[in-house]
Amino acid sequence: MPPGDTLPRYVCDACGEIHYQNPKLVVGAIPEHEGRILLCRRAIEPRYGYWTLPAGFMENDETAAEGALRETLEEAGARIELAGPFSMISVPAVNQIHVFYRARLLDLAFNPGEESLEVALVEEDKLPWKDIAFRTVAVTLRHWFADRARGEFGFHAEDLPLR
Amino acid sequence: MPPGDTLPRYVCDACGEIHYQNPKLVVGAIPEHEGRILLCRRAIEPRYGYWTLPAGFMENDETAAEGALRETLEEAGARIELAGPFSMISVPAVNQIHVFYRARLLDLAFNPGEESLEVALVEEDKLPWKDIAFRTVAVTLRHWFADRARGEFGFHAEDLPLR
């Protein structure tokens, strides 16, 4: 435990550098086009073959919004315009926070990137609820359709308890 | 650049471990009591002697809300009840995202922790605007007082551009 700190840390025996282990931010989008949502089927582990919203780890030197745009372009080849943040979900089991932005597809020229098997625009009644890759994505999509049904989009912050 | 990645990473020459460098989350609270806001005067660098809201790096194994409660207890000795998230501000210049929660002080038995010189409940017209430690805190406080003035608290997401 470094002086003045409250937790043990990884410290390099050789140079003394402290390696802090902090939660990582995953940023993504809910790209919408005429009521349908853009989903990607994963070509990578974890959850190969399952459906997800475009999302990934936020990188240094970018804002959360820029990260969501970048991941949507990388995974779905899709250009979007962001509205505000829609959900923020803590996942302490894996030390992550997932933030999803509302978004509008700018055109229909999307196509799967290296990390996706396919990309599709999906209606609410066709949503593959049993094959959604991550709980944060399912929670976000449920809030999105519920908010659309009541005609007003809010901001949803919650925690996924430890399994 | 590891296979399948899009950016160069720090890779250990000895064991091959990849050390990803991602933005860190800073979580904090806006503790309110009868219209006054709890502020801490920093006893540590950076910004020694300047005023801030209680906040700090989110740790592994906690949710964002738990982190905000913990930091408020550590820095201000204050017990609070959280309302929802109030602001989320990307600070790409330092690779951080700051998230502040609205909060209510549960009692007045607060006192400065090791990282604070003093803790005070401050009225809007006494706020030390010129001596606020961080831009994210100033932005958050400005939104808070503006929202209070119009009688409705929203959620505020924004970016602080690179200086």
Can you describe what's shown?
2 copies of one chain form a homodimer. By secondary structure, chain A is of the alpha+beta class. Chain A contains 2 helices and 10 strands. Chain A has helices at 64-76, 135-150; strands spanning 10-11, 18-19, 24-33, 36-42, 51-52, 55-57, 80-91, 96-105, 116-122, 156-159. In chain A, strands 3, 4, 5, 6, 7, 8, 9 and 10 form an 8-stranded mixed sheet that branches. A two-stranded antiparallel ribbon of chain A has the order 1-2. The longest helix of chain A is centred in the C-terminal third of the chain and has 16 residues, at 135-150. Chain A is elongated, with a radius of gyration of 18 Å. The first copy, chain A, starts with 9 loop residues before the first strand and ends with a strand. The mean pLDDT of chain A is 93. Chain A binds chain B through residues 4, 6-7, 19-25, 44, 57-66, 74, 84-85, 88, 90, 92, 95, 97, 99, 114, 155, 157, 159, and chain B through 4, 6-7, 19-25, 44, 57-66, 74, 84-85, 88, 90, 92, 95, 97, 99, 114, 155, 157, 159.
SS summary, helix count of chain A: 2
Binned, the helix content of chain A reads 10-25%
Q: Describe the sheet with the most strands of chain A.
A: 8 strands, mixed
Terminus-to-terminus distance of chain A: 29 Å
Arithmetic mean pLDDT of chain A: 93
For this structure, the quaternary state is homodimer
Q: Report the uncertain regions of chain A.
A: none
Structural class of chain A: alpha+beta
Shape call of chain A: elongated
Helix-strand pattern of chain A, N to C?
EEEEEEHEEEHE
Q: Evaluate the radius of gyration of chain A.
A: 18 Å
Determine the most extensive contact between two protein chains: A-B, 34 and 34 residues
Percentage of residues in DSSP E strands of chain A: 35-45%
What is the total tally of β strands of chain A?
10
